[in-house]
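Methods: holo model generation. Sequences were used as deposited, without trimming of termini or removal of tags, and paired with ligand SMILES retrieved from the corresponding compound records. Each pair was processed once, and we did not select among multiple samples. The sequence and adenosine-5'-triphosphate SMILES for this entry were:
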Amino acid sequence: MSAAPGRPQASSHRSAQHEGTPVIPPVLLSARQVGKAFVHQGQPRWACRGVSFDLYPGEVLAVVGESGSGKSTLLRLLAARLACDEGSVHYDVRAESPNESGSESTGLVDLAELSEARLRWLARTDWGFVEQHARDGLRMNVSGGANVGERLMALGARHYGHLRSEASSWMQRVELDAGRMDDLPATYSGGMQQRLQIARNLVTHPRLVFMDEPTTGLDVSVQARLLDLLRELVDELQLAAVVVTHDLAVARLLAQRMLVMKDGCVVEQGLTDRVLDDPQHPYTQLLVSSVLTP
Ligand SMILES: Nc1ncnc2c1ncn2[C@@H]1O[C@H](COP(=O)(O)OP(=O)(O)OP(=O)(O)O)[C@@H](O)[C@H]1O
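and the model returned the structure below.
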């Protein structure tokens, strides 16, 4: 395992603890100088570059910026859906993840060093990924209940009665009528599909959920209720999340911290209230004032 740079080592934690300094919780996800380039008209062009931050368990980070600023690319790098061209992403891998060779590391591990089996395990159990368009995150040809039960089956659950009862209870938890569990998702409204996608992701109690514009494109009233629901679930389940949004109100409501991206780079980061109430970078000031100005 290669340690992420720039982080205090275990011994310095111990001495800080000794002196009565508050103990820093272990990092869940760590990005260091993360970058990705795509070829555009024969030339590589950086979609995002030089992004660094640490995310702690139970913490919600919003990534904001205008269209094309690199938010979704960053999210896909963090979730190992894309490989970094520069830098690295480390994740706190649990001991119970599959370890076929018996030699794979646990603790904070570089995602680039994980086997396909371990990455698949993370994606199906310890992580969730909520897509902007629910149909990209659902299996549209199986029932709503099967969509929720599927991730449990990936963990080895086979008892049909248990799978149905878990699916039913999660559907109710996201305010869906459990009586619709045998219906195909295509027969659900957009807001219902999004709630189903959230249930599908949370059924395995992931520690980290990636969300790409989770409420964009829905009616304003549906959006407001969905945001409340997400906030309740994040609190109740102590989820860590990285939420990509162009909507500063979503960042304010869901996230304790935020990154502001422009042209693939982070121009400002900090506590959400501080960044939104006292933006330092001219671009953040512009974003904030464009929302406030009628
Ligand atoms: N698969 C790809 N191939 C080529 N270029 C890409 C690819 N994905 C993203 N890009 C480019 O990378 C840049 C950043 O795109 P990205 O989708 O990450 O931005 P974004 O901030 O999420 O935008 P939006 O809010 O519109 O989704 C854009 O210039 C985009 O055209």
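Residues 1-17 have pLDDT under 50 and may be disordered.
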